[in-house]
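To whoever picks this up:

The nightly regression suite flagged UDP-N-acetylmuramoylalanine--D-glutamate ligase as changed. Nothing in the input moved, so I suspect the structure step. Input below, exactly as stored in the fixture:
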Amino acid sequence: MKRLVVLGAGESGVGTALLGKQKGYHVFVSDKQKIKPKYKEVLIHNEIEWEEEKHSKAVIMTADVVMKSPGIPDTVPIVKELNHKGIPVISEIEFAAQFTDAIIVGITGSNGKTTTASLTHHILKQGGLNVGLAGNIGQSFAAQVAEGKNDFYVLELSSFQLDGIVNFRPHIAILTNITEDHLDRYEYKFENYINSKFRIVMNQTEADYFVYDADDPVIENWMQHNAVQSQKMPFSITKKVAQGASINNDKITLTIKNKTIEMPTKSLELQGNHNLKNAMAASTVAKLLSIRKATIRESLTNFQSVEHRLETVLKIQNVTYINDSKATNVNATFYALDSMSSPTVWIVGGVDKGNNYEELLPLVNEKVKAIVCLGLDNEKIINTFGNVVPIMTQTESMKDAVQIAYRLADKGDTVLLSPACASFDLFENYEDRGRQFKDAVRNL
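Regenerated output under the current build:
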């Protein structure tokens, strides 16, 4: 019996354990932290061996294959030792993909991947397909494969998940954009992170498709120097493309397999150029999978925004409170600030991932009247914006940050939580941060 060791008992770890057991592996789950009660119950109920708050090296080293949760860096001692011993360390995506014949749409990028994945899933579902949404979002891919009820999967993929693939091959790959992010996990080398994102196409053949942002200089530069085997489907809001999606006279023009369809941009539920691109990417996938034009149009007009992404919470005394907790890097916050149309009190900060805040200076200068720092180390933010914004304060709790922002905001202003950082110094994750913001606003 083959031995599968799962490192990390979160959503992806427990899903992998369930699938592994179903496929006849002897499974052992090991987590350096305490395992959440809901996951512990699943492991106990399914009679899967587990341990918490430690890694038993002697047991782990007997593995035939190890699935590592995406949150565990390659630099931790146990992973280094596994690599040294030549034991394969893979991601949940790699493990689960071998057990399904479903058609896979894989979506990665520094920003926009959650919205694009959710929107793509929405259109395909409205089109009547049996489609699952997984990866970095929702129920784990492995658990859904174990249930075996989907003919299609839309997977939101982080660079960490792609680092752990060997044979994984999505039929359609989407790359939304690449900007500096997670550099702390890539030796602070941007090129390492870029190469990681492009792993999404590494096993594709000419029978597959690659949908990408042709306006992104980082993507274009990489593609000039590297071969991609799959059929290219670029999308662009600045230039015409022979195959793919572009904008003509306020309409999205989709040209696929020599057929063209048009859709007015003003009817889109999600506004802003970045959402226009997300819509173009999702529509391209839908057309490649033969979804009817009317269904695509309708889906784009009735899709609701993703939670924690430019989500309007409340208006209090004519001040609008916006939750953009999912903005965990500078580029995402750039989109948020760019879409502000009133004077803004900006709540920013958290765990810095090697951020360069200087590209935000023009927007901050134009739109931000006050900054509320929310994090344990705000030095870089203060150094960058201290001379640009007249008011700057520091807090270490969401409640305090929201109350200070409330006092600083005047009628007609916006209070924007768009941290540009990871959340792990004060919160469990970006969802926890977003929910705490919403609770604090509702309690004003």
